[in-house]
Amino acid sequence: MSKIITVFGSTEPQGLSLIHSLLKDPKYTIRAVVLRKAASSDQARKLRDLGVQIFETNLEDRKSIATALEGAYGCFLFTDTDFSASNPEELEYQLGENVVDVAMVKKVQHIIFSTLPSVRQAIGISAANCDSKARINDYINERELPRTSVIFPFSYQNLATVFKPKKLQQHVYGLEIPMLNTSINMFDVNQAGPLLHYIFDNPAQTMNKTFNVVGDKLRVDEIAQIFTKVLKPNEFKDMKMQVEEFRRLPGDGIEDLGNMFEYFARHDLRFNMETTKKMLPDVKKFEQWVVENKTSLYAML
Predict the structure, then answer these.
(1) What is this structure's pTM?
(2) What is the pLDDT of residue 43?
(3) Residue 150's closest CA among 289, 271, 257?
(4) How many domains does the chain have?
(5) Residue 158 lies in a domain
(6) What residues form DSSP beta bridges with 237?
(7) Number of H helices, E strands in the chain
(8) Cα-based distances in Å from 177 to 24, 119, 252, 261, 286
(9) Cis peptide before 233 (omega within 30 of 0)
(10) Other residues' Cβ atoms within 10 Å of the Cβ of residue 123
(11) Predicted local confidence at residue 169, as pLDDT
(12) Is residue 178 one of the residues assigned to a domain?
């Protein structure tokens, strides 16, 4: 009999990658939790097209969470930060707490939580997207639930979306990432699925542990050099953006993200390449990802 895995955050990149990986494995039956407000989204439609069982859920409604977790062996939990909310950190924490409480009642045997370190505890300033997840992780640990915590770093895909290069002039682009001369840990989020799959397959080796996974570690100027090398004839530059400049940009949550980058710049996080390779032998370096995605990256410019 196959094991049921309930995926919270199924339309987000990490959850979607896990679903694609588990679909290849008959040991598992997948339940994709889709927020009711996103039930008609393209991502939800694609999941239905794949034959995945969809559970439309409101994470404020514990009854609907219980339905999604009924009889489940395991669950993957990714919580999103709604920076447009009046208190993004508290909202995310409460929704995560709801899932954890129900998972405890339903006796889920393995919870994988996608967490982040607490910026507030480390440097005394808040980053809602990090601090909320750190609090949820603490809550899981306090209840001694069977869990694996995974910290994913900055994704390569961010450089094609929210942090895509800014056009300065014809064939010249700038990278506005406020890391200065500090290297940033990175990872291909599309490889999250096989890594999480490994964790579900190997509970004896992964249960009650925290894994800081990484694919590459580069300074912003090194990222620019790789883009320049692969995406000819374009030239890419590190704009040497300061955190203070970044915080002045428009948009919800920009101060939180600025505080997160300040934390990244001040703390050399111990992401473990050796452990990552054990779980994911074909983990991709950044340059490999750029080469493989060259066509879409050209189109993005």
Answers:
(1) 0.96
(2) 83
(3) 271
(4) 1
(5) no
(6) 174
(7) 14, 13
(8) 37, 18, 17, 8, 16
(9) yes
(10) 14
(11) 97
(12) no
